[in-house]
Amino acid sequence: MVEAIAGPLRQYPELAVFLVLAVGYWIGNVRFGSFALGAVTGSLFAGLLIGQLDIPVSGPAKSVLFMLFLFANGYTVGPQFFRALKGDGVRSLALTLVQCICGLVVCVLFARLLKLDPGMAAGLLSGSLTQSPAIGAAAETIQKLPLDQMERDRLVAHVVVADALTYVFGTSGAILFLSRVAPRLLGVDLRQEAALLEAKMGIDSKRSGMLSAYRPLTARAYRVDDPALHGHPVAELEIQSGPQRVSVTRLRRGDTIIQAMPQTMIETGDVVVLSGRRLAVMNTGARVGEEVEDQQLLTFPVALVSIIASGVVDGKSLRELTDAPSLDLRNVYLRRVVRLGQEIPILPETVLQQGDVLDLVGGEADLERVAKHVGRILKPSSATDIGAVGIAIVVGGLLGIPSAVLGDLHIGLGTSVGALLGGVVVGWLSPRIAGFGQAPRAAIDFMRDIGLAAFLGINGLQAGPHFVAAFQEFGGVVLLAGAVCTLFPLLVSIFFGVRVLRMNPVLVLGACAGAQTSTPSLAAVQESSGSPVAILGYTVPYAVSQVILTIWGSVIVGVMT
Fold first, then answer.
1. How do the residues of the chain divide into helix, strand and coil, expressed in percent and rounded to 5?
2. Which of 86, 315, 333, 476 lies at a C-alpha separation of 20 to 30 Å from 322?
């Protein structure tokens, strides 16, 4: 029975890869309470399982998929990576460096204490710090070691085995520590700290305007019954609505529909359309007069566009932009801000960064007017700039090839880290150069998902025959070492962030989740704090750690060799 399955898979190993993906995604979606392995880790375990059938898989196919993943990963974090090198990103950068260096040091210490080989040491690092791309960097460095091919293959298999042993606690341990244990060690009430931070940042129902995407937007028609409004311009009524920012979009006078401008005069008996946040519109409308149903007046085009923020708004808060006299925001409202694929809170003190994606709703002409001052409208497209993808991987890979020679050891970035840095550069340039390096979010997500899942699945297939022996030799001690290597850097970082850098505890926990490249940990912190604001500390550390921890895969092999 087993041979009947194994025979075709050995003859057509590409089918084995897709079987690994199918089984891996099924395993990854199985939940244990609120915890799930995820599709990527599930593919690794599926590869180890099916790999027991001893199925040969081509190495170049694995490398191509991995480079696609690394480019996409770099493309995503590009804007945030360079931002960490300046301004308010310096504190986040400092915390990230401390956490990453602590992670490397403790992994090296345990690897030497337990006499682990370079492969097991690299897997201990990638799994405990939940940075699967480090597997590829470590494997590439191992292949350059002055050893026979059989021994190099064994060490690469050990990377995968150790990663599989330590990754589960690396994920679940970080979730529990950051969301439950860390607040107690710091002596803070996470919900109270989040509420204070929200208040400081200006989450206030009385101050919304452009910042009101927490509630639905609406447009309603009201007959002007208040004689005090007669003969006054539209701008005056809008000012009277206060900081809630209600706009007069259009009005009906008799049988004529007029597109309202700030200088348009209001007359008693006019029917005006008020647009804005629902509660603000209702409050303003109650002062204007009776609400009426006027389908013709209320039938006008409203557009929803995504704008990629330019350097003009970089470092400016939403409050500053709302109050800026040069930026006319009439009939334009912010629905969502996305950074690194994560939605961030829309608060008056939320600071925009170049590369943020802003979802705006309003009239087409109004949106185009605002876009000229805020950024560039992302035109809906399914096309990917494959030319930029290819040249970035080639140039980055070539720059990663040169290495320093220390004895028999070759030390360099490698083609994998080079591809990652190529993606970082293209991701940074894309918002700045119209038409360059454009890639729909779905395309980037596909590159990341299929690239990493297939890469780890193939690694699992290749490591399968070595798994049992390696587990029997190292399993228990590597599990315990992995737990310490996960928790110790987090422990150092929370106190460094709060006590030394004087950062808000909620932002520190978000930053630690980012430096661990652990999105599930961020979600757990947000749930425990009852607030989304931890995301504001997450983005810069996540971007920087994606690069540093990947490089650590090569570094630990060099150190252990």
1. 60, 10, 25
2. 86
- Measured CA to CA, the distance from residue 373 to residue 328 in angstroms comes to 9
Query: Tokens 């003969």 correspond to what residue?
Result: 231
The structure tokens listed for 245 are 């920012």
Q: Quick: pLDDT tens for 313-326.
A: 888 888 788 777 77
Average pLDDT of the chain to the nearest whole number = 83
Q: Is 218 helix (H, G, I), strand (E, B) or coil?
A: strand
pLDDT one-digit tens code per residue, 465-514: 777 777 777 777 888 999 999 999 999 999 999 999 999 999 999 999 99
Q: State the pTM of this model.
A: 0.76
pLDDT 10s digits, 75-114? 887 777 776 666 567 888 999 999 999 999 999 999 999 9
E strands within 135-262?
A: 217-223, 247-253, 256-259
Distance CA 81, CA 509 (A): 19
Strand, coil or helix: 338: strand
